[in-house]
Design brief:
Length: about 170
Amino acid sequence: MLNTDLHKIGGSALTDNIDVPKYNRLPSPTKKIPVTYVPARNTIFLSYAIAWAEVLQSSDIYIGVNAVDYSGYPDCRPEYIEAFEQMADLGTKTGVEGITKIKIRTPLLNMTKAQIIRKGIELGVDYSLTHSCYDPSPARLACGRCESCILRKKGFKKAGVKDPARYQEV
């Protein structure tokens, strides 16, 4: 088993002692990367996945990145995924020898949160077992005010579906 503790890397409100920003509505888009960005998280995940795919001689890796309703993380963009596929071909034995070409599949990449929620319902996802909060309470209640909570609530509303997540009283 591989254990990766991103808290040891730090540098993010999700992995370090940095406050998660709270809002009453979605903040205006900016070019600045949010403090909730975890340094190289998807790069780390995809690196492990490529190593395992190479051992299994698998060509497909799936990741749930989203470039529509998201916080502006650089490792959720289509150009990042394309560049990572190229790197996999250049940096693996199976890629260099032409045995297997790695394809990173991103089924959620161009979907809105509402579309993702509807697709989950269609597939039988029990959303009452989930929350999207960046700063849940010790009782695992979603804060309702971080960017991720606001995006989730907006997605459920646009999908016309009641959000079953449990939120803290504000």
